[in-house]
Amino acid sequence: LPNNSSEIVFKSDTAHKFYDKLPKEFQRKEAVEIGNKMNISERTVDGYLSKLEKANYLSKPKAGFYIKMK
């Protein structure tokens, strides 16, 4: 069976919890603040945002702004 995209994106429970805490619309700096509260580094937050965007969980209408799609 083909892999579900959510399995690829959420390899860790931390990544899934991070995504759940994100608001419907947010800026990168808000995501970094949420990550800091969860003891996630800024670099890891950027990695999560990139992977979530590629998996169509997030839309990026302009630089630094994101919208949850799922």
Mean pLDDT: 88
Q: Provide the gyration radius in Å.
A: 12 Å
Would you identify the regions where 5 or more consecutive residues have pLDDT less than 50?
A: none
Q: How are the strands ordered across the major sheet?
A: 1-3-2
Major sheet, described briefly?
Answer: 3 strands, antiparallel
What is the rounded distance between the termini?
A: 22 Å
Instruction: Supply the number of helical segments.
Output: 4
Taken from the alpha-carbon principal axes, the silhouette is globular
Strand content: 15-25%
Structure description:
There is one protein chain. This protein is of the alpha+beta class and 70 residues long. The chain has 4 helices and 3 strands. It has a 3-stranded antiparallel beta sheet with strand order 1-3-2. The radius of gyration is 12 Å and the shape is globular. The two termini are 22 Å apart. The relative contact order is 0.19. The mean pLDDT is 88.
Summarize this entry quickly.
The chain is an alpha+beta fold. It has helices at 5-9, 13-21, 28-37, 42-54, and strands at 25-27, 58-62, 65-68. The two termini are 22 Å apart.
